[in-house]
Amino acid sequence: MSRQNYTFTSESVSEGHPDKVCDRISDAVLDAFLAEDELARVACETFATTNRVVIGGEVGLSDQEKLHEYMGRIDEIARACIKDIGYEQEKFHWQTCEVTNLLHEQSAHIAQGVTGEGNRDEGAGDQGIMFGYATTETDALMPAPIQYSHAILRRLAEVRKSGAEPALGPDAKSQLSVVYKDGVPTGVSSVVLSTQHLDEALTSDDIRALVEPYIREVLPDGWLTDGTEWHVNPTGKFVIGGPDGDAGLTGRKIIVDTYGGAAPHGGGAFSGKDPTKVDRSAAYAARYLAKNVVAAGMAERCTIQLSYAIGVAKPLSIYADTHGTGDVAPADIEKAVAASMDLTPRGIREHLELNKPVYQRTAAYGHFGREPEADGGFSWERTDLVDALKKSI
Question: Which of the following is catalytic: 11, 23, 27, 279?
Answer without folding.
Answer: 279
